[in-house]
Amino acid sequence: QVQLAESGGGLVQTGGSLRLSCAGSGRAFSVYAMGWFRQTPGKERDFVAAISRNGGSTNYADSVKGRFTISRDNAKNTVYLQTNSLKPEDTAVYYCAARESTSTSAFAYYTQVYDYRYWGQGTQVTVSS
Q1: pLDDT in tens, 10-62
Q2: How far apart are CA 32 and CA 14, in angstroms?
Q3: If we measure between CA atoms, which residue out of 125, 129, 127, 120 comes closest to residue 22?
Q4: Which residue from 5, 10, 57, 108 lies 20 to 30 Å from 29 (Cα-Cα)?
Q5: 3-state secondary structure labels for all residues of 6-27
Q6: CA pair distance 100, 16, nearest whole angstrom
Q7: What confidence score (pLDDT) does residue 46 get?
Q8: Distance of alpha carbon 33 from alpha carbon 67, whole angstroms
């Protein structure tokens, strides 16, 4: 089992940047593939980015490609989401998620909400126009 805690959200102007962090505690972090999702009120939780447990593979939603970068530091039990060139439509609560993936390739990543078992409580990102 792993506990996840996001941080780094806040209020930023259009075109600005934020680095979100997700710290994991509990079981060894390197057994988990990780993902970032976001959600706005009344809407479903949407995929943003994913990274394999070894950090060797990543995947992004089309809406954030070229602007967001996911990375991880297994020694620090942390996954990051660097968000650049932010737009008002990026405003949402951002969640990190973990899925144990020792039974699959170390390069596997996952893009669906139902793929993940563990979730953080979220961090709010607000982009003003």
Answers
A1: 999 999 999 999 999 977 889 999 999 999 999 999 999 999 999 999 999 99
A2: 33
A3: 120
A4: 10
A5: EECCEEEECCCCEEEEEEEEEC
A6: 33
A7: 98
A8: 21
